């Protein structure tokens, strides 16, 4: 059963275009020129209970705008969102009880209050039953190692401590759905790992639905079974993580090292030269049309190969390729 | 309602803890309000001591107006001071979003987030002036007159909050609403004096458009026994109408809220 239902969702921002200088400012005041910017366009997807979905795309692709519409912060321009049967804008309070939110870039807690005071305040707002709160607090203290920072005000915390504090605050009312907007941004590997484990563990024990935006593909690879890619406000991929590699990672690269300078090479079809230096040649080929041994054989007949390495595409390079070549999305049908 | 009172109380307690951490700020804030008010009163006294009365109004009578206005202002200052800085301190740095994902009314959350203790200064000055004027003018201090004053001060406070709420809501479009709030709020200074001092248009403005007059001039006139008829009792109704309009405008503004950046 889907817990998040997004239909034809769109958001257009209207901003006043200003020319520079005093003259421009006055002109903008009396005769404003509006500029419309489509941030999200005709978005459709459903997310089931217990899924961890990675929501990725380049900066400005519309990730945060989508999350803000799902959480009820922004009103959509078109379409509708239903979260556990509630309209997040019109039924704000009812929706807020079901969700937890972490924005990696900004704090949800009170700057001057000690963490424990902030958590008490949050628990109070969400009406967490006191004995349950005590239980959760001791559990979170353990898994997120909060003991050392419970009495510390947020303003004097390190980034890693702050993020652990944010997570505790977002989960203290046991939300059914959690939105995490770049939860690991700027953190060291140890803290990242702890946070990923926390999310994974919580998802498994509570069947909590998680929607995660990130630029760290480690987050995606370790947590998400499903990925939605958004580009220029539209969905360009929606499907299992492993299928991205199959669908977009159809190219492999092979590098040959030689002892003699390389001259005059005839490439087999479906094979493309990526780089060539005196003693090294890097090729890219379509795995569906050629095997690595076919390429190697063809080359070895022409040049004196000392060594060669074969590279499988990793997720990072696939995503990078997709981000750099938006038309690449069209190479395969979007998995609905 | 009970739930909101409990949460509000919890916010007050937390706020107090923060204040105790910055104890010096606490005293400076309260004292500066008293000094600020004191300076205005001295200026008024300097003008009025030259003449026994202006248009039949004595210094004590004007101080009564001033005192009532200060008490109403104090209510706004204490409960709704965060409306001033919604754009600068909440919307611009992206802090407003968190109010929208919590299961309580976002306006309540904004107001509860910072109860402004500086208002203590307003209450000290306001009570002092009203008390002084009532004694000097030999006005009856009875249960009826005290109840009347409390009702009018609360109504006046709500009028102040309503006008600030409207101007604060402009932040949803223009981000920095402080100049707009300041522009409207400053007109309350006209209400420190009898509205009959000014051109008719100012009186109409402060009665029907920016009804600060109901926080000062009208209740003072009634206490002084001037015949102003039903105008003396209109403040609660004006307060109710203003706050309703203001809240609707706020809700309308929320729909235009665009949040910031990522």
TrEMBL record, chain A:
What PANTHER family does the database record attribute to this sequence?
ABC TRANSPORTER ATP-BINDING PROTEIN, ABC-TRANSPORT PROTEIN, ATP-BINDING COMPONENT
Write out the GO MF terms. Answer: ATP binding; ATP hydrolysis activity
Residues that span the membrane, as ranges: none
Keyword Kinase in annotation:
no
Residue ranges the record marks as coiled coil = none
- Keywords in alphabetical order, please: ATP-binding, Nucleotide-binding, Transport
Q: Give a yes or no for keyword Nucleotide-binding in this entry.
A: yes
Q: Where does the ABC transporter domain lie?
A: 4-257
Please give the name of this protein.
ABC transporter related
From TrEMBL, chain B:
Sorted alphabetically, which InterPro entries does this protein's record hold?
A: ABC-2_transporter-like (IPR010390)
Q: Which UniProt keywords apply?
A: Membrane, Transmembrane, Transmembrane helix
Q: Give a single Pfam family match.
A: ABC2_membrane_6
Query: Transport as a keyword?
Result: no
Q: Does the keyword Membrane apply?
A: yes
- Give TM segment ranges: 24-48, 54-71, 115-135, 141-174, 195-218, 230-250
Protein's recorded name? ABC transporter permease protein
The source organism is Herpetosiphon aurantiacus (strain ATCC 23779 / DSM 785 / 114-95)
